[in-house]
Design goal:
Helices cover 50% and strands 4% of the residues. It has 101 residues and is mainly alpha-helical. The protein folds into 2 domains: 1-61, Helix Hairpins, CATH 1.10.287.1480; 62-94, Ribosomal Protein S14/S29 (30s Ribosomal Protein S14, Chain N, Irregular).
């Protein structure tokens, strides 16, 4: 089980990224638009830099929903490989059968 503080920090980042998503996309569109004057694009870059760092989607870490483990997480299931194997062995995931030979 991961530290509660790490899990909560990641959850705060998710909320902040969702809150600023529209503003970031608008500013990035202006900053990357080659047809606009250089000064206007530069101002958009400065405003983008003023936003909180944790508002960026790249700072979000994929974590297991069950254990909080940051590595070996399947995106589709939002679960780590260890939790997936454990729940699969218990028969709690429909359609998943642990192979044995």
């Amino acid at each position: 089980m991961a530290k509660k503080s790490s899990i909560e920090k990641n959850n705060r980042r998710r909320k902040l990224a969702a809150q600023y998503a529209a503003k970031r996309t608008k500013l990035k569109a202006v900053a990357n638009d080659e047809s606009l004057p250089l000064e206007e694009r530069f101002q958009a870059r400065l405003k983008l830099a003023e936003l909180p760092r944790n508002a960026s989607a790249t700072r979000i870490r994929n974590r297991c929903e069950v254990t909080g483990r940051p590595r070996g997480v399947y995106r589709k299931l939002k679960m780590s490989r260890i939790a997936l194997r454990e729940l699969g062995s218990l028969g709690l995931i429909p359609g998943l059968v642990k192979s044995s030979w």
